[in-house]
Structure prediction request, 286 residues.
Amino acid sequence: MRQTRSFKQELTACFGQPVAENPTQVMMEAAFRHHGLNWRYLTIEVAPENLADAVRGARAMGFVGFNCTIPHKVAVIDHLDELGKSAALMRAVNCVVRRNGKLVGENTDGKGFLEALRKVTDPRGKVVVIFGAGGAARAIGAELALAGVSRITIVNRSPTRGKELVDSLRQNTGIACDLVVGAEEFVVPPNVDVVINATSIGLFPDIDARVPVHRPSILPQMIVADVIPNPPRTRFLREAEERGCRTIDGLEMLVNQGIIGIQYWSGIHANASVMRQALQEVFNSL
Ligand SMILES: NC(=O)c1ccc[n+]([C@@H]2O[C@H](COP(=O)([O-])OP(=O)(O)OC[C@H]3O[C@@H](n4cnc5c(N)ncnc54)[C@H](OP(=O)(O)O)[C@@H]3O)[C@@H](O)[C@H]2O)c1
Prediction:
């Protein structure tokens, strides 16, 4: 009897602009191969004025889902059918999932960070300082508040986004939250448990840029995390390690949010080491 064979791949993607230097495809396709999925993850340049058509195209072609990156994380919401809880709280979507024919917007950035933190400590009751108030800080702040941390201090260079984030966290989650603006060198109070750089400070090529923190106030019992994936061992993390702290790097968050995306799309829990290894090879070859 003649056997049938399918030459059709399931499609996933990242929509962004500029997107050419985004390496997510490498770790996602490494996971697909590892788990025997004949799937593709396409890196697609989508201009803001074409976003509606791109989402319509993804619907028409039956994409399993797609990631959204700069500048589409907020704008994509208008083109979706539903939002998951944390995406609704943040009003930002980085992962779209097709469920029962509907496109549902999720936010996996903060969840990816939370997974990484949970490997080191239980977030409940923890006192947290977050540097930054952009997309990454919003995602992490919302997820930490939902996970039951007791207090969040946002430290941001400029007031507008900082105030918006603090107001949103207070109103939507009821968490104790305060804002410090433009601190030259923020002195971390000794009762803080977790210190997070969620700014873009330290991202390649500006790898010597300094997060504005007073080094001696970083104590060995603190957990110090950075969202910067490239380079994974940032100056901020190196200096925290020198002070005896446990650290979490940006690759952990990136890999974890990819794992959550694959789980949403396929139900498979992807292998973290395969994905991390694939990314590390890319960064080492740059
Ligand atoms: N590892 C991961 O999975 C992952 C996921 C998402 C994002 N990220 C990384 O997170 C970083 C931030 O992304 P985002 O989407 O949050 O960007 P964003 O929305 O543009 O926000 C950037 C934040 O950094 C602050 N900032 C930038 N340059 C600064 C400087 N020189 N001094 C002080 N503050 C500065 C900004 O302050 P103002 O408000 O004053 O401008 C803002 O709070 C990026 O580098 C991205 O690669 C990593």
Notes: The pocket of NAP is lined by residues 109, 112, 132-137, 156-158, 161, 199-201, 203, 227-229, 250, 253-254, 257 (CB under 6 Å). The CA atoms of residues 90 and 138 lie 6 Å apart. The chain has a mean pLDDT of 95.
